[in-house]
Write a structure and sequence with these properties.
- By secondary structure, the protein is of the alpha+beta class.
- It is 30% helix and 22% strand.
- The strands form five sheets. Strands 12, 13, 14, 15, 16, 17, 18, 19, 21 and 22 form a ten-stranded antiparallel beta sheet that branches.
- A hairpin with a 7-residue loop joins β21 and β22.
- α4 crosses α11.
- The longest helix is centred in the middle third of the chain and has 19 residues.
- Bound molecules: FE2/S2 (inorganic) cluster (FES) and fe (ii) ion (FE2).
- The site of fe (ii) ion has 7 residues, from α5 and α10.
Length: 442
C-alpha cells in the first residue's frame, strides 16, 4: 500500500496516482471514508407513503431505506442476520415486512426481526429475536427532504458537516416554493474507473468543459461554424469547504452555444415567468451559484444547469456505479417537467451527449494506470493555488475563480484526513490552524 504520510498534506496540489488503484487503500477508504461520512440515502419524493422503501448503498454496503408508519425515515443494512443473504432484492416499492428469501427470517419496517420459521420446532424457543435485528444505520439526517445516513457517532452533526456548503446546497433544496421531486426511477450504469474521478470532477472541474464537451456543445447549437466556448476567466466562483466543492461560471457567461436549447421554449418561458420569485426566495447570486456543479463529500453530486443529481457508488478501486436522478420543481406544470426530463436525458443520462464524454476520460485515465510507471510521480492539482479568497463576491466561504482546482484540493485533503484515520477533533483543529494562517498571510 502507498505511504499514507505521503498524502498527509495535499495543499501543494500533488496527488499520487495510486490513490485511484491501490486495493488495500480501497478497503481502508470503505471503512474510514464511507464509514465516517454522511452519505446520501434518498429524497423525500422517493418514499411517498408509509411502507415505501428503496435499496441503496453506503459505499459497498447495501442499505434499505424505509418510510415508517409514523412518517419517519429509517435505514438498515440489507443483510439478513441469519446467514448474510440480502434481505430485500427489489429496488424499490412498498411493503409491510421484509422476508429473507433464503430461510425466511422476517423483519419489520425498522429492521427488527419479527418472525423466524420453526421458532419452536428447531430453535426450541431459545432464539432471542430482539438481538438479531438488521444492523441499523444509527444516524439519519433530513436536510430539507434530502436524507443522509452515517454509521459513526463521532462524525459532526450534518449541518456542521456541511459548514458553508449549506448555503450552496440550499440553493438547490430551497430553490422552488414547494420543493423538488425526482422523476421516478433511477438510471444506473457501471463505469470502469475509480469513484473519486467523478466525485472530484463534480466538485471542482470546469476546466474540462470546453475541451471534452466541445463536440457536444457544437452539436447542440445546431449552427454552422459554432465553436465550443467558455471564457476561463468568466465571472463565477468555485467553493471549497469540509471536502465539499461547487462552482461554475455564472450565466450569462455560462450560456455556451446550445445550452439554451437543451430544455426548449416551454421550460425557458416558465423559468422567465418564475425568475423574480426565485430571486426573492434565495437571492440572485445564490440562484446562479446553484446552477453549477457540486459534490457533497464524498460522493453525492448534482449539476444545476441540467437538473441531474447522482451518487457515485464505489465498486472496487477500478469501478463505480453511477446512480442518477432528474430533479424538478414539484409544482411546475406537467409540460415543463416533461421538458426537463427529456433535456436531462439528452445531456446527462447514460447515453447523454455530455455524460458519455466524461466517462470516456475517466476510463482512459484508469486504463493508463495499469502501467507501473504510470503510477509513479504525482498528478497536478495546482490550478489557482494561492489565489483563494474568503467571503467575497457575495458567496460564503473559501472560493476561487470558477475555473480552478481549489475544490479538488479540498476534496483530497478531506479524503486523506479520513482515510488516514484522523479524528474529527484533529481535523477541526488542523483546519482552524490553517484558517488562522490564512488570515495572517492575507
Ligand atoms: S440467510 Fe436469511 S433467513 Fe437464512
Ligand atoms: Fe463534464
Amino acid at each position: 500500500m502507498i505511504d499514507l504520510n505521503g498524502i498527509a498534506d495535499v495543499r501543494g496540489g500533488l496527488v499520487p496516482p495510486e490513490i485511484y488503484s491501490d486495493p488495500d487503500l480501497y478497503q481502508l477508504e470503505l471503512q474510514n471514508v464511507f464509514g465516517r461520512s454522511w452519505l446520501f440515502l434518498a429524497h423525500d419524493s422517493q418514499l411517498p407513503k408509509p411502507g415505501s422503501f428503496l435499496q441503496t448503498y453506503m459505499g459497498e454496503d447495501p442499505i434499505l431505506v424505509v418510510r415508517q408508519r409514523d412518517g419517519e425515515v429509517k435505514a438498515f443494512l440489507n443483510q439478513c442476520r441469519h446467514r448474510g443473504m440480502r434481505i430485500c432484492r427489489t429496488d424499490a416499492g412498498a411493503a409491510k415486512t421484509f422476508t429473507c428469501s433464503y430461510h425466511g427470517w422476517a423483519y419489520d419496517l425498522a429492521g427488527n426481526l419479527i418472525n423466524v420459521p420453526g421458532e419452536e420446532a428447531v430453535y426450541h424457543g431459545e432464539l432471542d429475536k430482539s438481538r438479531w435485528g438488521a444492523h441499523k444505520v444509527p444516524r439519519i439526517a433530513n436536510h430539507k427532504g434530502f436524507y443522509f445516513g452515517c454509521w459513526s457517532d463521532e462524525t459532526p452533526e450534518f449541518t456542521d458537516y456541511l459548514g458553508d456548503m449549506a448555503w450552496y446546497f440550499d440553493g438547490l433544496a430551497d430553490r422552488w416554493d414547494n420543493g423538488l421531486e425526482l422523476v421516478p426511477g433511477t438510471s444506473k450504469w457501471v463505469i470502469d474507473c475509480n469513484w473519486k474521478f467523478a466525485a472530484e470532477q463534480a466538485a471542482s472541474d470546469m476546466y474540462h468543459a470546453p475541451i471534452s464537451h466541445a463536440s457536444a456543445q457544437i452539436a447542440l447549437s445546431a449552427e454552422a461554424g459554432a465553436q465550443a466556448y467558455l471564457p476561463y476567466d468568466a465571472p463565477g466562483r468555485q467553493f471549497t469547504g469540509n471536502g465539499h466543492g461547487t462552482g461554475g461560471p455564472w450565466p450569462p457567461a455560462l450560456v455556451m452555444p446550445g445550452t439554451d436549447k437543451v430544455y426548449g421554449p416551454v421550460y425557458e418561458n416558465w423559468l422567465a415567468d418564475n425568475q423574480q420569485e426565485l430571486h426573492r426566495r434565495i437571492g440572485e447570486t445564490r440562484a446562479l451559484a446553484a446552477l453549477g456543479h457540486a459534490t457533497i463529500f464524498p460522493n453525492f453530486s448534482w449539476l444545476g444547469i441540467t437538473a441531474t443529481m447522482r451518487v457515485y457508488h464505489p465498486r472496487g478501486p477500478e469501478q463505480m456505479e453511477v446512480w442518477t436522478w432528474t430533479y424538478m420543481p414539484k409544482d411546475a406544470p406537467e409540460e415543463v417537467k416533461e421538458s426537463l426530463r427529456l433535456g436531462t436525458q439528452y445531456t446527462f443520462s447514460p447515453a447523454g451527449v455530455f455524460e458519455t464524454d466524461d466517462g470516456e476520460n475517466w476510463t482512459e485515465v484508469q486504463r493508463v494506470l495499469r502501467g507501473w510507471k504510470a503510477r509513479t510521480g504525482s498528478f497536478n492539482v495546482q490550478m489557482g493555488l494561492g489565489h483563494e479568497e474568503r467571503d467575497v463576491h457575495g458567496v460564503p466561504g473559501l472560493t476561487n475563480q470558477s475555473v480552478a482546482e481549489t475544490a479538488a484540493r479540498g476534496f483530497y485533503q478531506r479524503w486523506s484526513d479520513l482515510v488516514r484515520g484522523l479524528s474529527w477533533q484533529e481535523i477541526a483543529e488542523r483546519d482552524a490552524k490553517r484558517a488562522a494562517e490564512e488570515v495572517k498571510s492575507a
